[in-house]
Design goal:
Blueprint: H1 2-16, H2 26-35, E1 57-62, H3 76-84, H4 91-95, E2 99-109, E3 123-130, H5 133-149, E4 154-159, E5 162-167, E6 176-181, E7 185-189, H6 192-203, H7 213-219, E8 228-233, H8 234-240, E9 252-260, E10 263-271, E11 299-304, H9 313-326, H10 333-337, H11 341-347, H12 351-355, E12 362-368, E13 377-383, H13 388-401, E14 405-411, E15 414-427, E16 436-450, E17 453-457, H14 460-468, H15 478-484, E18 494-498, H16 499-509, H17 513-519, H18 521-525, E19 527-538, E20 541-550
Antiparallel strand pairs: 1-2, 1-8, 2-3, 3-7, 4-5, 5-6, 6-7, 8-9, 9-10, 10-20, 11-12, 11-18, 12-13, 13-17, 14-15, 15-16, 16-17, 18-19, 19-20
Length: 553
């Protein structure tokens, strides 16, 4: 119920995106914005001065007019229509003429009135920058005048020199309050208490988000030219959404969205209050293991050194995120990254001890949907190191202990090792004839050596594709080449996902993706691929990016 009210508030928001205005005293507002100077990184949301340090989340759109350039690629009109609903408000006519360089939405608290008797009532705040103060005041007056004509019960109060207007007519749908703050912002909230708190946050700077050391550190990571910024207080967000947080390593996170060639780049940095191990891995180009991945495979993971992946800060971040979504404390990144996780369950393979421990060089994993088989086809490429022979022999031994035959043969003149299971089959030409018997072998995995790499595949057919495409491989994939060009040259590897060919694989691993496809339909309708890279680690932060390559961009 609370979530539906929140989305209703957001909807009432573009409506409201036009609503509430605080009328702040000119001098106090000017002084507050003057002190809210950039502390590094890209442009920061000015409305952060209205938001409490304890706020669960703040989302800001910077320079909304830049989004007009996305209209041809992403149908933003549908988003505007869903926000405005049947309000009678026209975005272009009523809002765009006065809307300034920022729209900020915030969940200010989990219970704005701190009254346990009426349950938790989150506070919601919207701040709209205005470039035409008179027009924005006229809009606010028109908005509430229409409500009066419709029978609304309005209340007007003055707080700290600011005029607050509240509509009490439909409390079951949430209250709408608004105020104009000097010539800077129009504010809206779901209760006058939320607006009063926002005013207090400006007049007592040590209360607002800009005074938080965590926010200051995060703000330095805002991308230059960012279109939007989201700041998250992770434990409080989990509590707000009713998610369990069995593992908590990172406590705050910032995401900034910017335009990039052929798409959108979301850069994120997550912070931890305690020092965690860092990775010294630095790659200046895609790993050579990708030369053995067929170009048709829809999902690839490539990097170097699997030996410490389970204890890396990337794994810790995944464990916290996936753990919150699933409510499970034991969520391993390896179960998502590697198709070999199935081998762990079926054959008793210990991924950390039997595979990751000896993979200290380059590696690449690739998946491709196989509707006929149910499970995806996979390729696992490992750069050979001094420890590789023992590791490969160990996998052959595990296969034999599980009743599989370790067979040697050639395929296209290439020596192949296969883990197979033999089974007898019978055929009859007619009812009186004696049955004819034959032996069929089912391969549960095959591997071979090409150059300085050992290649494992899920089937003989997949191995044939690897051998046949070694001169035309994934490194020539143009979508991949274009996508990695947006990331820093030095990074820690890539995850590349061809959206059309990988949706079913992802949805099995992340059921919440179905919901995201509905919520962000305009984006996913035009999504060609997404690429993820991790390119900065410190003792207290993890930084990376996600590039969304869009059609017709």
């Amino acid at each position: 119920m609370r979530r539906s009210l929140f989305f209703r508030f957001l909807a009432a928001s573009l409506v409201v995106l036009l609503l509430n205005s605080f009328i702040f005293s000119e001098t106090s507002v000017a002084a507050a914005f003057a002190s809210n100077k950039s502390i590094g990184g890209g442009e920061q949301p000015n409305a952060a001065i209205f938001v409490s340090k304890q706020a669960p989340v703040m989302v800001s759109i910077l320079h909304p007019e830049r989004f007009q350039g996305l209209e041809k690629q992403v149908d933003l009109s549908k988003l505007k229509e869903s926000f405005l609903g049947n309000s009678g408000i026209d975005y272009r006519q009523d809002i765009q003429p006065w809307l300034g360089s920022e729209i900020t939405l915030a969940v200010t608290s989990l219970d704005f009135d701190r009254d346990a008797d009426n349950g938790k009532q989150p506070g919601y705040l919207m701040a709209l920058a205005t470039k035409a103060p008179e027009k924005s005041r006229e809009f606010l007056q028109l908005l509430f005048s229409k409500r009066v004509l419709a029978g609304a019960d309005l209340n007007v109060e003055e707080y700290a020199g600011i005029k607050i207007i509240a509509d009490y007519s439909q409390p079951e749908k949430g209250m709408l309050t608004g105020a104009v703050v000097g010539d800077k912002f129009v504010l809206f909230a779901n209760d006058p208490k939320v607006l009063r708190e926002a005013i207090n946050n400006v007049q007592a700077p040590d209360l607002n988000l800009t005074s938080s050391p965590q926010y200051q550190e995060a703000a330095q990571q805002i991308s230059q030219g960012a279109l939007g910024v989201t700041y998250l207080n992770l434990p409080t967000v989990a509590e707000w959404q009713g998610l369990k947080l069995p593992v908590q390593t990172f406590d705050t996170q910032l995401v900034s969205l910017s335009l990039a060639a052929k798409g959108l780049l979301a850069e994120t940095v997550a912070f931890t209050p305690e020092a965690i191990p860092t990775s010294s891995l630095k790659l200046s180009k895609p790993v050579g293991a990708l030369q053995y991945i067929p170009p048709t495979f829809g999902m690839t993971f490539s990097s170097s050194d699997l030996s410490n992946i389970s204890s890396s800060n990337l794994a810790r971040y995944w464990q916290q995120l996936a753990g919150a979504l699933s409510g499970k404390s034991e969520v391993s990144i390896t179960n998502f990254v590697l198709p070999l996780a199935e081998a762990q369950n079926r054959w008793g393979v210990n991924l950390s001890a039997d595979i990751f421990k000896w993979v200290t060089g380059e590696y690449a994993v690739a998946l491709m949907s196989n509707p006929q088989q149910g499970n995806p086809d996979w390729v696992f490429v490992v750069e050979k190191t001094p420890t590789s022979p023992d590791g490969i022999s160990r996998l052959d031994e595990i296969a034999a202990k599980n009743g599989l035959s370790v067979s040697l043969f050639t395929l296209d003149k290439q020596p192949i090792t296969a883990w197979t299971q033999l089974a007898a089959t019978t055929t009859k030409t007619d009812a009186k004839a004696k049955p004819s018997f034959s032996i069929a072998a089912k391969a549960y995995g095959v591997h071979t050596t090409l150059g300085n790499y050992e290649i494992f595949t899920s089937s003989l057919e997949t191995m044939h594709e690897v051998i046949a495409s070694k001169d035309h491989n994934f490194t020539e994939n143009r979508n991949f080449q274009k996508s990695i060009a947006v990331f820093p040259k030095t990074n820690q590897g890539y995850i590349h996902i061809d959206w059309a060919n990988s949706q079913d694989i992802l949805q099995k691993q992340l059921p919440i993706l179905q919901l995201l496809k509905v919520v962000a339909k305009p984006l996913f309708d035009n999504l060609r691929s997404l690429t993820i890279s991790n390119y900065d680690n410190s003792e207290r932060s993890l930084k990376g990016g996600v590039f969304f390559q869009l059609d017709n961009f």
